[in-house]
Amino acid sequence: MKFLALCSSKEDNVANMLDAISVGKKVVIKNKKTTLTSTTKIPKYHKIALNDIPRGGSIIKNGICIGQAIKTIDMGAHVHVHNIVSNRAILKEER
Amino acid sequence: MHSFTGYLRQNGKVGIRNELLILNLTGLTNKIAERIHKYLKYSKLISFDYGMGLLNKDKEISQNVLTGLSLNPNVGGVLLISSDKSRSEIVIEQLKKNKKPFGSIFLGDAGSDPLEMITTAIKKGAEILKEISEIKKNHFGLDKICLSVECGLSDPTSGLFANPLIGKISDKIVSSGGIVIMGETLEWLGVENGLAERAVSSDVQNKIKKSVLRREKLAIDNGINLSGVNPNKKNIEDGLSTIEEKAIGSSIKSGSSRIEGVLEYGQIPTKAGLWLMDAPSYTPESLTGFSSSGSQICLFSTGSGNCYSSDLMPTIRITANPETALRLSHQIDHDCSDLIINGNFEKAEDKLLEDLISVLNGKLCYGEILGDGSETISRFGEAL
Lengths: 95, 384
Description:
The structure holds two protein chains of two kinds. Chain A has no helices and nine strands. Chain A has strands at 3-6, 14-17, 26-29, 34-37, 47-49, 58-61, 64-69, 78-79, 84-85. Chain B is built from 14 helices and 16 strands.
């Protein structure tokens, strides 16, 4: 079975899974017409990385930066609060 | 041409409902207003439970919002309740200017006797209800509509499907000559440059950017880490990671029209088109800002479900999450989860527009049926 993910803009490096997925499954990226393999478990509607993202790299969704990676993220991995942070409203002690 | 039937008011605005609003202006008379409301079955009650001693911006905005709520086109007549006349003067002046039927009852005039006040108020309210119930409905175009757009307890399906769909309806209302209002300033964070590019002037552009930066600074100065607040814990559990990601999905409700200006909380727009409102994101406060601005109807998207509704504006709850639509079938008014499977926005737009027009014509939303409606007026500072 193939799983679908939706990405909104061609610059995006993340897509939203339309199903929950386990490791090692084929994922078809809907409006990008590419396929990749999941490298972690990902809950339904959560984000999957479309390529390797280095620590500090920008996370792009809808062509807009939604934050940065706080650790290296592998292609096919779950992208969420455990590996990315916002670039906005950063408190002094966090800088 | 799409049209609907509504109630023409003396000031040229059109209501889609015809309510008697009991507007309580002082905390001292809160329970009195509640008892009056119980007797007048076909009435709505909004209570502002503060009194003297409001200062500066807080005082100004609360007066404007109370006036705005009483002028909302869905309100056919108003019964003002207050401890004394001074609190009501500005509202009364505007009600007279707009020729809206009203009565005002003060505790002072009843010799500080609540029971006497209640009797007088019920009689007055009954007279107004009798009067406004005779108003006949007429046909109007969508240029008479002021639509507000909101989201609450969003998940990724909101930003991917429900909000883009709302954005299409926003564009439709604006192109028909109507008004659209979007608030929730914190949820412009990260997309403010894109919004600013759509502003009609450099002045509006600056206002958009300034409102966002001011609210961002408010979070920083108060030591608030937005992660867990906005997006909140439920948003995060459902897959939204950062405020920027949430903002992309949220701001898309505004559609693609040019932005006419940035309204203060509850301010009434001066002309047709798309407006932003610089306002708190919390849904109860946000929706009351829209009611006060004269919005007659609200499109409200949710991901995991949200039971809130405005009391004055019928609030159409929309979800694109099929599990939510199934689980909360008596909360969700409009299920657009088909979009996940077929991506057919054109068909979904027709369906939502049809549903919207039905509600304009009188079809009830679950919020109205189940009595979920409320109005919550924001406060902007300390009182004496």
